[in-house]
Design goal:
The protein is of the alpha+beta class. Residues about 65-75, about 90-105 and about 335-375 have low confidence and may be disordered. It has a 7-stranded antiparallel beta sheet, sandwiched between helices. Strands 1-18-10-9-8 form a 5-stranded mixed beta sheet, covered by helices on one side. A hairpin with a 3-residue loop joins strand 15 and strand 16. About 45% of the residues lie in helices and about 15% in strands. The protein has helices spanning about 1-30, 35-50, 60-65, 70-75, 110-140, 150-160, 200-215, 215-230, 235-255, 260-275, 295-305, 315-340, 445-450, 495-505; strands at about 80, 145, 170, 180, 190, 350, 355, 380-390, 390-400, 405-410, 415-420, 420-425, 430-440, 455-460, 460-465, 470-475, 480-490, 510. Helix 2 packs parallel to helix 12.
């Protein structure tokens, strides 16, 4: 769920910024182009928000989170799992342990993802329940028009004119303040219990059937779902509002396309009369809309304009192409920046030290003839480690050294195992390397323990510099926390300090 939330957050930032840019540029383009291009652009952005193709991805967003001392609060460091193959004599019973999914403590990012999902679900359920209650009320309290032959003839005639094959039912609903269309499969024209003239009914029916022809109730549903998924982004709420306005303006343009100025004026007066009677808020998932006096003035000005406007197809295509290109550029640049700055995305290194061989076998699962299920990869017996000392690189052959539930790669012939969980340098007994498993303890709890012992957090590690330098690295593995420790005299920092950081990076939990 956290990965989904990060992906939604990334695309919301990309598309939200583009929506704000579109709102700022719209007044300059509205003078020459019809509202259809803007309405199409909003639909394109809505589909982009639900079916993200480009934009910031989850990894990019995660890379923007705090690092260093705060990294443990954003995401836990998980210890890699290494499978060690051991030859067992015939007749010796062997117990296969199934791999367990690594568990981690509840992080703030997990809480944010849970809050997002809960709010998203609550908004969608509230919208659907409100809509269903309204539909049930319409069928209970509304009266289907069966006797008014003139209205039925007008609906049939205009439905044929607009090539609408679905039957449209007219219902008189006393609680309705204005005409509207509801219904995704069987369109229903709802009319208030008000005495309209035949001319007013003519314009009302034409306006609402244009909504049916264009499938605006489906787009209303699309915008509502987008707003629910991206409820945390105010730019998406702005997009929803602007899309509703442009939907009505585009419908007005279609209705009045063949009208002369007198007919346009009569149509505007019908809208004004209808709006004056409207008192309630807009009904969800319907074509009913009213946004206030300023928006109605904008609609009237657009209807009564004598200036011929272009369709705006070229502007729509340019807008869609620009959105895709900008999203791709932002996504690629952010991903590149994240990968360049994230040590987890590069070869393991600390300070001037790094490993030369990429441990691809530690990240990829392999199948064996005995068991086709995905398992942890086998560990290589030897590998080359690269150390950087005083600006010069030095390579050493390292062998796999297995402890009690973990393993390291140690330079061949330079270390000896003193205990099941500890190794000592053969050249300097003060240089030691060991690992410890803190059963059932969280990473934060272990950090607090080590801090109480004199360790300080620095560069994703814990350092204790008293008589000699001690370094601790913590990893999560299931419900446990592993600590990798090493120590060396201060005067040996240039030598062992560089080597031990590379060796510690080869730590892995074994099956």
């Amino acid at each position: 769920m956290t990965h989904i939330f990060l992906s939604v957050l990334g695309i919301s930032l990309s598309a939200g910024a583009f929506a704000a840019l579109l709102v700022l540029c719209a007044p300059l383009l509205n003078r020459r182009y019809a509202a259809r291009w803007r309405y199409g652009a909003w639909i394109f952005l809505a589909l982009w928000l639900l079916i993200p193709v480009t934009g910031l991805d989850g990894q990019s967003i995660a890379g923007l989170l705090p690092s260093g001392a705060d990294a443990s609060q954003a995401a836990e460091t998980v210890a890699p799992l290494r499978r060690i193959t051991i030859e067992i004599p015939r007749g010796t019973p062997a117990t296969a342990k199934a791999g367990e999914a690594p568990a981690r403590d509840l992080a703030p990012l997990d809480i944010a993802a849970f809050v997002w999902a809960a709010a998203c679900l609550a908004i969608i359920l509230f919208t659907l329940i409100s809509y269903l209650c309204f539909v049930i009320s319409v069928y209970k309290r509304g009266n289907i028009l069966r006797d008014d032959a003139w209205i039925r003839r007008q609906i049939s005639a205009q439905a044929r004119e607009f090539h609408i094959k679905r039957a449209v039912t007219a219902v008189i609903y006393p609680a309705a303040d204005s005409p509207m269309i509801i219904g995704f499969f069987r369109p229903v024209l709802i009319l208030p219990d008000t005495a309209y003239s035949e001319e007013e009914l003519f314009y009302i029916i034409k306006h609402e059937l244009i909504h049916v022809k264009r499938g605006d109730v489906y787009f209303k549903l699309l915008f509502t779902v987008v707003r629910a998924v991206h409820w945390f982004n105010p730019l998406i709420w702005l997009m929803h509002r602007e899309a509703s306005i442009d939907m009505e303006i585009a419908c007005d343009e279609t209705v009045t396309r063949q009208f002369d100025f007198a007919e346009k004026k009569a149509y505007s007066e019908t809208l004004l009369t209808t709006i004056r009677r409207q008192r309630a808020k807009s009904t969800v998932l319907s074509t009913q809309f009213y946004g206030g006096k300023e928006i109605m003035k904008k609609r009237f000005k657009n209807i009564l304009s004598k200036k011929e406007k272009k369709s705006g197809v070229s502007i729509f295509v340019l807008t869609a192409a620009t959105a895709v290109c900008l999203g791709a550029l932002v996504g690629c640049s952010t991903s590149a920046g994240t990968n360049a700055g994230d040590p987890a995305q590069t070869q393991s290194q600390t300070g001037d030290a790094k490993t030369s061989d990429a441990e691809t076998s530690d990240d990829e699962a392999t199948n064996t003839p005995e068991n086709e299920a995905t398992e942890a990869p086998e560990a290589e017996a030897t590998k080359m480690l690269t150390f950087s000392k005083e600006g010069e690189e030095e390579q050493k052959k390292a062998v796999l050294s297995v402890g009690d539930g973990f393993s390291f790669y140690l330079p061949e012939g330079e270390w000896e195992q003193a205990k099941p969980d500890q190794w000592v340098s053969t050249a300097n007994k003060k240089v030691r390397l060991w690992a410890k498993c803190f059963k059932g303890e969280s990473k934060n709890k272990v950090e607090k323990k080590l801090t109480a012992q004199g360790y300080e957090t620095a560069a994703k590690k814990l350092t204790c510099a008293k008589k000699q330098t001690k370094i601790a690295c913590l990893y999560k593995s299931g419900n446990d926390t592993w600590g990798v420790f090493y120590c060396y005299p201060r005067e040996a920092e240039e030598g062992y300090g560089a080597e031990l950081s590379v060796i510690a990076d080869t730590f892995a939990v074994t099956e």
